[in-house]
Amino acid sequence: MSGAYWIEVSKCSPVARDLARPHYSRAKPDSRELGPPGQKIVLVGRDGKAVWGSHRPAPWAGVKRMDGFEGHSCFIFRNDGGPLSSLIIREAVAYTARKWGLAPFITYVAIEKVRHKRDPGRCFIKAGFHRVSVKERTKHGPMLRLEMSVDEVSRCSASG
């Protein structure tokens, strides 16, 4: 993969919404806006095959995440046949760090909602995230918590 894969779009982008529609994280698949309240970066692949969403609570609001994590989060990632997922995850993490500053990253993977494979979250793990825990009871079933250290985020930024 040569050059930047991602293009930043509006949180209301029709292209991003179409890519995100089938994703399990969409409480209302046809809602106009992607992601939770707060600051968001929404990225779409240049080939129109992937979507990524970064989130952080608005720094000026003094709001903290319910899980206590301090850093950036991936609220959606879907790759429908674009480049290798682990590579474009690292690029999206680097993009976010350049825009918002270095901070650790977190994401959750609904174990029972992703395509069945030997290890859910594999693309995130290959990208440098590590397994932290599993929360058994959520509206999406068991959720795998994955985190990327600030040092790994820095390596993503250095290589991108």
How are the elements arranged and paired?
Blueprint: E1 6-9, H1 14-20, E2 39-45, E3 50-56, E4 72-79, H2 85-100, E5 105-110, H3 122-127, E6 130-135, E7 143-148, H4 150-159
Parallel strand pairs: 4-5
Antiparallel strand pairs: 1-2, 2-3, 3-4, 5-7, 6-7
Task: Describe the 3D structure.
The chain has a seven-stranded mixed beta sheet with strand order 1-2-3-4-5-7-6, sandwiched between helices. It has a single domain (6-159), classed as Aminopeptidase (3-Layer(aba) Sandwich). The chain has helices spanning 14-20, 85-100, 122-127, 150-159; strands at residues 6-9, 39-45, 50-56, 72-79, 105-110, 130-135, 143-148. With 160 residues, it is α+β, with helices and mostly antiparallel strands. It starts with 5 loop residues before the first strand and ends with a helix. It is globular and about 35 Å long. Helices cover 24% and strands 28% of the residues.
